[in-house]
């Protein structure tokens, strides 16, 4: 028998885990107050993601933009550490859950944090505009501030492979423009993203492409997601790629698959090297 | 400059990582042959998940059923080890990626494997029917086989909390029935699921509810997903709950949050206990 | 104030987490009944590992053998998926804990389970000897049984790189022999390991080297560790390599380091390949 | 056949993974230049840990101090999120590697980073002393600096449970004092640790105990370990506790063990709560 939780009284054990996300009774489950059986079949997966993280249900146009960002970031191939980790994992005996966990764990500050940082950068630029700067001044000023903290990488911009353009960025921005023209989002973060790109292009004297993190961060900011959720949503999206590659690797077989063909091994630059035989 | 990969010749390093999921060139990304910019805005997230794991794009009715399964399993509250792990993780300093990784890693054979096992059980029953048994005989026989291997738990059936019925199961099965009546799926795995439930109810003399794993496994089997992908898809779905709870916990704050209020600690039953002071 | 745990009464919350490993009161910590301040400075790390997992303190000769096994397995280079994962992880922004977690997670059935399986194989051979077989018959018979379950790989034997001999195995077995000659261990599992090796060599007509898992499993079995702890101890040992490589990579720098030099990418064998430009 | 690595020539694939930790040829393994068969049986586990992370072999007194720190931090009971995660994990079906991975992943900035931060704090104080401050001034000044960055928690000091003293700290510091009196370490970081404690006690007007992180950080700093390795070594130490608790839980059994007894569930404070039945 379940111990009754009495509102307003001391329920210290139950209160240790307090949430406004899910409520349950035998035979009943509600998310943010909505019975699960009403959500199933009526809410899209994107709407459910929004409801769970935000507390309200988005309209269809907003959910569609979220879906576009989620579709765009699923995978960047086996060269991405996240995907490589997932593929290696199944050859080590892990099930898909373990492979996906290793992949998602990789999405830390460098591999998965750029979206979060970009959202925060965009907001800082927006705040400077609100305070009276032009958007160009604000972009230039906040880029300077960012780089003064020691990193030359502006989160969300530049790509070592996709030059002059990351094909995902203009497509995503185009969809934001459409949504803005119909009044579903403000469009101000798309402007901010483009202002950053212009400053970077001008300074470099060559195109510095907005990358997937920069473009999805525009969407997440337009939709009102907080920075940390930009990272979380990227993890969710990339989990699709990790699952797919892990499953493909499972079908390919292999045992303890290392990063390069075994014939190459690695280079040793320490003391007392073994003489070639 | 990229080393040219020449089809048919020795490209041992590139061939070490071979995939049919993603192809890339500077400025171009294709998934299963589809350019990313055509997928963004046209494929739903569920369709993208299908494309990535299966290689083809599903029709809208199939994608909708997949979406229903993904919506249904996002969360089961902070008592679920996956969710508790995610919430603890952020109080230990992890970002959302680390919290989600710890949660998904928890979804191993016991916490996350029931869907995979249920898909396999359903297929074994279907094979027995193809071989001439009635569906009732096949269900009874395969339940016996399963339990003979030592586990009394039939994957996908029974729930310690939701009695007499898990509210997600009848809703999901109803949607399968609808789709079957319109010819989008065969409906045979829904029949198999119900046949198992009938055998279990009869044997126990009381309702043994089909749970979320049993119900989503019906959908995954109807849609043609292999068993291991049932686990992977559950991981993807539950990642939404993990992200949401981790984010809520991040906003609540807390440091090194243990499982129970600290005042309770644990019970020690080893040698030389410390005398109560 | 801590809620008093009253032995024999209902302390359901405290009892949910019951352990015989650790007891605490403010200012006091005991492991298996030993005050921590007595263990620090008196128990070696190997003795502490034994105490924690087994409940008693080993003698110095037993602790020394355990230490030899732990020293032997720390690392097998960046080609090992565990080590590669640790190095990739720090380039993705993870701290050493995350890098070590990704490495240890990799040590599943294939990459980290051979020691556990070898301990179990050795015990099955020992049981057959107790039942009257000669050790050669028992080894041959249990190898047959193992392979009949579908795997050609005998856990703990064979190495794709170290031929004809893994340098760690004879050294470890020599130390077991020494300890056996002095009566510190029985030596029977070293005999069993050698019996397996003889059967495999004879069948193959060429040396099938006992590998690190086979050799450390001899030690773990001699010392009375259960199979699953052979895996756990390997994880502990390999954590040293993971930490060391992650730390070296941290000092080398690098961002989002993929498995192979980026110039190589991967091979795509799916539909609609992008034409080389 | 292994591709010959020719020093000074282009070996781009092998060079992608360059290390000074391990060198191998068939039948040969060397760590930092030492053949593995010479290390096994001669180097203690603590010496091996030092060799792997630092490149040289420590003397016995230094290795003993390292060992004391490793022994001291293995476990702090099932209330620690790391240990709770390990125990939950095995009830979800994970093997010891997965349980240990989840535990170690938890040891991020808040749960596992205090040792790293304390080493860095100690070094900043030492630098101020070198620049001419008294140790008391330096401690007070660097504490102020630390707290000015927004955290009231001084890493390595204070304990919510062990009051007035964490029993591990005075024992570890006593061993540092002994080693310093014999000239094996300088003893200056023990002084710095005590200076911090004095400042904190004076400011609070009550004892602020040096905790396990503060005390092991003294040892790691005395021995010359860099800050990040203090975290790594804590992960290694705590892995012992995670393994031991996971193994105990495996023997206790249980399925999908949540944080509190299931009868308590959690408290819901969101919209539209389910009415108590």
Automatic annotation (TrEMBL), chains A, B, C, D:
Gene3D superfamilies given in the database record: Citrate Synthase, domain 1, Cytochrome P450-Terp, domain 2
GO terms of molecular function: citrate synthase activity
EC number, UniProt record: 2.3.3.16
Pfam families, per database record: Citrate_synt (PF00285)
Chain spans, region Disordered: 251-277
Protein family according to the UniProt entry: Belongs to the citrate synthase family.
InterPro entries from the UniProt entry: Citrate_synth-like_lrg_a-sub, Citrate_synth-like_sm_a-sub, Citrate_synthase, Citrate_synthase_sf
Pathway: Carbohydrate metabolism; tricarboxylic acid cycle; isocitrate from oxaloacetate: step 1/2
Keywords, in A-Z order: Transferase
The protein's name in its UniProt record: citrate synthase (unknown stereospecificity)
A single GO BP: carbohydrate metabolic process
SUPFAM superfamilies: Citrate synthase (SSF48256)
Gene Ontology cellular component list: cytosol
Residues passing through the membrane, by range: none
